[in-house]
Model the fold of this input.
Amino acid sequence: MSKESKPVTKDITLLRNLIPPFFGVAVLEPVSEDYDSEPHSASEYIVMGDIIQNFRTPCVLDLKIGRQTWSPDAPAEKISHEKSKYAETKDKLGLSLTGMLVYDIKKGKTVRREASFGKQLDPITLRDSLGEFLNEKVGVHQFIAKTLVKKLLKVKEFFCAQKQYAFYSSSLLVAYDASYVEHRLKSSYVKERKFYRTCHRDEEEWLRVWMIDFSHVHPANGQLDNNYIFGLNSVIRIITSFAEGNSTNPIRKLP
Done:
């Protein structure tokens, strides 16, 4: 290690495993059929990994974490606007369901939930929505939730180790392959396991959790990011209740 280089700390190593793979920057030239118009400059785009790569029937959840979703230096109007969004679930749980795509195994069709749906939720209906995401109606939620809890605890391990950054308005992107779950719990998995071993080399690659949205990351000044940890603990508590097959809504136990 050179004198100029800095050692890689444990928390940064943990973070690398929680964010999408980075494949560099792509420069795209504008395409125009109007040859008389003024030329436009090329644009640069970050090329990131695809969380649903190799998934046959993906289910995707975008969950914004934290009670405070605005930067510490945000103007008053921005703060007021942010406080008004997802108010019920954000204030009590530190969670905002900003979007969801679910392959309903029972009905055999995909259901999309937009941000407007999440803005109408309260703590009880948010828990119900996470049950929908886990395909609770067909009884596979416990199987999915057990793996999801393990991955969420990896995120918590990072936040309990690092005091460099505070993440505001950052999200957890969760995705799983409903097709894998459906076949894994049926005898047909035996016939399809060669396909799934090819697509999901890691035994748990059928479910992925990535941290995304880092435009409002600020120095933590040696303090734990308790704003993020509060929301993360809420979602871990809820998903754990599904993993344990607990029909009692854990939201009711909140202080």
